[in-house]
Amino acid sequence: MSELDLRMAAIVHTLRYILMGLALAGVLFATGFMLFVNTIDRDSSTPQAAEGVVALTGGKDRIGKAFKLLASGQAKRLLITGVNPSTKARDLQRLVPGGEKFFPCCVDLGRAALDTRGNASETREWVARHGFSSLIVVTSSYHLPRTLIEYARAMPQVQLIPHAVLSSNFHIDKWWSHDGTRRLLFSEYVKYLNALTQYVGARAAALAGLGGAPASPASAN
Using alpha carbons only, how large is the chain's radius of gyration in Å? Predict the structure, then answer.
């Protein structure tokens, strides 16, 4: 066999391994996506009580759901995180019945957060300020898995209680037949993988003695 033949054989051999690796990565990605879809909460029943409740802006009904929990006594105080700086408190009061009664005493507005990680950072400061050890997290059902990772990383000492908001235009039970739901799930899955990778990296660094160990997302009940 000539030197050229040997080189071509080596190239083919390398390409075969590359293709096998890509195929395996595709299978793992698809499997992970299906597992991610199956973890999305389909239950919006009233969660257990906590000291605080936080609503992440960005989805319909999130603020209303969180306010109902506050009004029913499930939490002592509410943080709405990610509020647009131009939004007035009275504008948010109009979104919920009885808002004028609860907003002055028991509702705080966070205006610094620009994304989910920013929400977690803003909430961490609020939780520390009030000395809370338990927190109901209110956001859209598809957004909840990533939110819990970011919050567990930011607040490992705080008990996180998820409360999913189910949107009428988010068709989780037949996601494959709705373009908008498919695109949203795929986009959120990619963001979730990024957050999970960073969380695992931070945990590995902590176990290696390079930082404090974050709490496991599984402990976010």
Answer: 22
How many CB atoms are closer than 10 A to CB 175?
A: 18
Tell me the angle at which helices 62-71 and 99-106 cross, rounded to the nearest 10 degrees. Answer: 80
Give the pLDDT confidence of 198-219 residue by residue, as tens digits.
Answer: 998 888 887 887 655 444 443 3
pLDDT digit string (tens) for 103-120?
888 999 999 999 999 999
The pLDDT of 70-81, averaged and rounded, is 95
Q: What is the pLDDT of residues 126-175, one digit of tens each?
A: 999 999 999 999 999 999 999 999 999 999 999 999 999 998 889 998 99
How far apart CA 44 and CA 164 sit, in angstroms, is 6
CA distances in angstroms from 136 to 51, 62, 86, 107, 180, listed in the order given:
8, 12, 26, 14, 28
Return d(Cα 127, Cα 121) in angstroms, integer.
Answer: 10
User: What is the Cα–Cα distance from 44 to 15, expressed in whole angstroms?
Assistant: 49
- Residue 174, Cβ neighbours under 10 Å: how many? 8
Q: Is the predicted pLDDT of residue 221 greater than 60, yes or no? A: no
155 three-state secondary structure:
coil
Domain architecture of the chain: domains with CATH: 52-167 (3.40.50.620)
Measure the CA–CA gap between 159 and 176, rounded to whole angstroms: 34
Q: From residue 129, how far is each of 132, 161, 184 by CA, in Å?
A: 8, 19, 35
